[in-house]
Each structure stands twice: as structure tokens, then as C-alpha cells.
Design goal:
Layout lengths: L18 H24 L5 E4 L2 E6 L13 E6 L4 E7 L8 H6 L6 E4 L14 E3 L2 E4 L1 E13 L2 E14 L2 E6 L5 H6 L2 E4 L3 E4 L2 E2 L19 E7 L4 E6 L12 H10 L2 E6 L8 E3 L2 E2 L14 E7 L3
């Protein structure tokens, strides 16, 4: 029986891709991962180059808020191969402005406020670790960030964790998959209140962190730390409590901002009147306290990487 040669093309034939095809597939996968981040960051205005590896962006897009309202955002993008982060405590363990803490650390490029604290005596009210010394733990499962050095670049740990101390020994209990050993090794770490993103996943179960009622749903000045898909570190401040300039953000709006910046993990730090960003000798945000920048317990400093 005669079969037309063309009919053979109807039979499926599987062929393993050659090296060139495999390279094209890998390239497409990489582009699919990177292009969304580049597209999001392409919507930002041109940055100010502050130092090698440090760029300052400003955003004033009312569409970040729902309903729309005035907003002012300052965002530092840090190259983790060029700079690193350190946490500094207020002078003699008391409260001090972010600018004063930065001035006491020669070479500091930029700084933002860090963790929560008592207004009465300046003591940290959750985990705070400075230069390898745990100054305070946390009985509540609060969102936290740890600062590590890996292969010549700064790496950030994000998790919710409880930190207990007994007879001088610290026990770290992370709840979302990071290593307790890594938290123990981190020379610097601080708790926030509101882990917003973790490895690309939005979180909204802040009840476990025991934040105050309305803290997440009311617009406040905010300070946020995060890392994007390229591993770049972001320090962000959001002005608030000024209806003509900037009204602040809720947690959901802060998550929207984090997505706009391409962040994969992000943590809300202390905010309100504490929110302060200092860059190259000047305050670049608009602190909400009538008296000006508030003295705080601690600050996160951006310093050049030692060569």
C-alpha cells in the first residue's frame, strides 16, 4: 500500500534540544525573571548618584495610594558589593538623632532610623543587636532583619522571630524558614513591626506580630528596608502627617510601593515621628514632628565596603 511521504510529518517526533536551544531557553527564563524588575524600576525618576553604589530616588505618585493623595517617598538603592550596613546605638545608650549618629561615624554615606524604642528612656523594645552584642530580645514574634557578609557582599536575613536570653545566652527562633545559626552569626540585627514581603510573597497576617490596632491600616510616616530581585538593598522613607505634602501609607500601600521598587523581601521599621533619612550630610525627607528630627534609639548606617 502506497503512503504519501508527507503523511510522515503527522507523526510527532521528540528531539532533545541542542546546546544552542538550551542556551536560548535559559536566556528566556532569565529575561522573564529580570524584565519585570527592570520595568518597575524604569518608572522611577532619574536618581541622584550619592556615592559609588548608592543612588537616591524620589517618588511622588499619588496612584501608590488608594484613595489617591499627596505622597513623598525617598528611596536609597545600595549595591551590596560596594557598601555595607551597620547599626549604631544612640550615644551612651540614650536617644540621639539619626544625623548625630551618622556624624559620630566617619565615612558614613547615608542613614535611616531603625527599631522601636521607649520614648521615656530610649531603650529598644524588641530585638536589637549591634556589633555582635544582643542588647535586647523579643518575646513576641516580630519581623526582623539581620545583616550578614557573604562572599564579599552584604546579605540580608528576613523572618519573624522570637529572641530570648538566659544567663547570657541568646536563643533565636525564626518562624519562616531562616537559620537560627545565621541570626546568631549576624553582627547586626533589628526588629520591625510588619514583615511585608518574604521571597516575593505578600504577608498580611500581622496579628501574629501583635501590632497595635489600626497601626497597619492608618496612614503614617514609614521607614522600610528591603532587597530586590537583583540583590540590591533598599532603604526607604515615606513622609506623612502633612496633607499638602505627604499623608503617609498603610501597610497595604507600603506593599504597593515595595512592588513598585521591585522588592522581594521587605520589613516595616519604626516610623511616625522617628522616620528620618540622612544622606551626605543633610536630612532629605520631611520628619513629621514639629520640633524636627526625633532623637531615636538606633540607626542603620550605610558605609563604604572595606577594601
Amino acid at each position: 500500500m502506497f503512503r504519501h511521504p508527507a503523511s510522515r510529518s503527522l507523526s510527532p517526533v521528540f528531539r532533545f534540544p541542542g546546546p544552542r536551544s538550551r542556551h536560548l531557553v535559559a536566556t528566556c527564563i532569565l529575561l522573564c525573571a529580570v524584565l519585570p524588575v527592570l520595568a518597575q524600576q524604569a518608572t522611577l525618576a532619574p536618581p541622584r548618584q550619592v556615592a559609588d553604589g548608592v543612588r537616591l530616588y524620589r517618588l511622588a505618585d499619588p496612584d501608590l495610594l488608594s484613595p489617591r493623595a499627596p505622597i513623598a517617598v525617598q528611596a536609597l538603592r545600595l549595591d551590596p558589593r560596594k557598601v555595607t550596613l551597620e547599626i549604631r546605638r544612640g550615644h551612651d545608650g540614650t536617644r540621639e538623632t539619626v544625623a548625630a549618629m551618622a556624624a559620630r561615624s566617619p565615612g558614613t554615606i547615608a542613614a535611616v532610623n531603625g527599631g522601636f524604642f521607649s520614648l521615656q528612656d530610649g531603650r529598644p523594645t524588641a530585638m536589637l543587636k549591634v556589633n555582635g552584642e544582643l542588647l535586647n530580645g523579643s518575646r513576641r514574634a516580630r519581623g526582623g532583619v539581620g545583616i550578614l557578609e557573604r562572599d564579599g557582599r552584604t546579605s540580608l536575613l528576613f523572618d519573624r522571630l522570637i529572641v530570648r536570653t538566659r544567663e547570657g545566652t541568646a536563643t533565636y527562633t525564626p518562624l519562616l524558614g531562616t537559620s537560627a545559626d545565621d541570626w546568631a552569626r549576624a553582627p547586626h540585627a533589628v526588629s520591625g513591626a510588619g514583615l511585608l514581603l518574604l521571597d516575593g510573597r505578600e504577608l498580611n497576617d500581622w496579628f501574629i506580630e501583635q501590632v497595635s490596632e489600626g497601626f497597619d491600616t492608618t496612614r503614617h510616616p514609614r521607614t522600610m528596608i528591603g532587597v530586590d530581585g537583583d540583590g540590591a538593598i533598599w532603604l526607604v522613607t515615606v513622609d506623612g502627617r502633612n496633607p499638602f505634602l505627604s499623608v503617609g501609607m498603610t501597610f497595604v500601600e507600603l506593599q504597593r510601593l515595595a512592588r513598585r521598587l521591585g522588592l522581594r523581601s521587605a520589613l516595616n521599621l519604626d516610623g511616625g515621628g522617628s522616620t528620618t533619612m540622612w544622606v551626605a550630610g543633610e536630612i532629605v525627607n520631611h520628619p513629621s514632628d514639629p520640633a524636627g528630627p526625633r532623637p531615636v534609639s538606633d540607626a542603620i548606617l550605610v558605609v563604604p565596603r572595606a577594601r
